[in-house]
Amino acid sequence: MTVTISLMKETDWADVARIYREGIETGNSTFENEPPSSWEKWCEKKVNECSLVARADGAIVGWAAVSPFSTRAVYSGVVENSLYVATSARGKGVGAALLEELIRVTEAHGIWTIQSRIFPENTASLRLHLNHGFRQVGILEKIGQMQFGPNKGQWRDVVFMERRSRTVGN
Predict the structure, then answer these.
(1) What CA–CA distance (Å, rounded) separates 70 from 65?
(2) Which of 88, 91, 126, 163 is the least crowded, having the fewest Cβ atoms under 10 Å away?
(3) What global pTM score does this model have?
(4) Sign of torsion over alpha carbons 71, 66, 138, 148
(5) Which domains, ranges and CATH numbers included, belong to the chain?
């Protein structure tokens, strides 16, 4: 599978939302119960110049984006990442291609730390992040309670990970 990565555009929104929904349905990707209702709502919480999509054979098969960690100026170079791969494309290198480009793009925009909170059951995402220079900082125990789906009411742990740039903010 040949994967190309490009900046996310408004015209990509339907595919991004579809892939996000596939991740939500696993019960091991996010505390969210649905994607944002519109492209505009999506953009309100993202660093849009760092939002990416992956394409294979012309179809969007994954996406990656970052959200600011804080609105305080001191943390302007710290973000939290999200990365989702379509069910049909998992295990084919899409996640690796997206994360490599996300690291490059965020560093080009002055971001020095990418954080990630991953459910321990999502072993593929944990492995992907470790393979791309993230380190496990710790476990946030029972940090949130599932509000939907088969895990509704369950308190969930997340693995807190971060990647500190070797080139930005040193």
Answers:
(1) 16
(2) 91
(3) 0.95
(4) positive
(5) 3-164 (3.40.630.30)
